[in-house]
Amino acid sequence: MESKANAVLLQAQQLTYGYGKQQVLNGVSLDIRAGEVLALLGPNGTGKSTLLKLLLGLYPPASGEVTLADKPLTQMTRREIAGHIAYVPQHHISPFPYTVRQVVSMGRYHSGGVFGRMSERDGELVAKVLIRLKIEHLAERRYTEISGGEQQLALVCRALVQGAKILMLDEPASALDFGHQARLLAQLRQLAEDGYAVVMTTHHPHHARMIAHRAVMLKSGLVMANGAPAEILTPAAIQQLYDLSAQELAAFTRGVA
Ligand SMILES: Nc1ncnc2c1ncn2[C@@H]1O[C@H](COP(=O)(O)OP(=O)(O)OP(=O)(O)O)[C@@H](O)[C@H]1O
């Protein structure tokens, strides 16, 4: 697959999706490009996680399509998709008390590696990624016994060892302390600079401003704006996106400042 800077890796066209009678996405189109962090913003329940699941091929769109190098995801196997797209969910409950190293190693599964059959190279890759995200000290701890934030970092490691060039993260910083947020966001930016396409949902416009090359504002199942964060994340647009009055926004941003 082509991964030149700014090459379109994944394309979503006119996606619609709903649950039962509830229509959630009403015609969403966007491109995901190599070398870019794309931040997806929108109010609670607006369909950000649902959109990620369509972009990952986990849900088939009701209409429209998602294509990877011009091939619809609906015509690809999960294993094939996993070679290109890695997912960091908001929550993940491990049914078994695996160690962090084992959970991270599961990222190699699609390429044939399973616990007993991990190659030496797989093992080295896992160790390298644990160091990169600064959680190597957790490697032998049980995943079920570490904190939510530590679990999120382990899941990012699992996505990285997968070797996919498109990373999709659902609110990756939501459970992280200030230091880990700063480190993770810097890592995501670096990954884009290394040629990855990074897509993350976030509730923090300032996170988008800090690291994203592009922001997509999703409201009522439609793309309200799509562009450079500095250009589109204006106070007026943020007010509109989250239904805030000028006073509410001013009071909140004064507090944040
Ligand atoms: N499995 C499901 N079955 C039925 N309805 C669902 C399901 N998943 C999500 N929904 C509904 O679809 C809408 C969009 O949900 P989604 O989780 O995509 O929103 P979101 O923008 O990611 O929200 P948040 O910011 O709160 O995480 C919500 O109204 C939600 O209740």
UniProtKB/TrEMBL annotation:
Gene3D superfamilies: P-loop containing nucleotide triphosphate hydrolases. SMART domains: AAA. Residues 10-245 form the ABC transporter domain. InterPro entries: AAA+_ATPase, ABC_transporter-like_ATP-bd, ABC_transporter-like_CS, Metal_Ion_Import_ABC, P-loop_NTPase. It holds the Pfam family ABC_tran. PROSITE patterns: ABC_TRANSPORTER_1, ABC_TRANSPORTER_2. GO terms for molecular function: ATP binding. This is ABC transporter ATP-binding protein. It comes from Shewanella avicenniae.
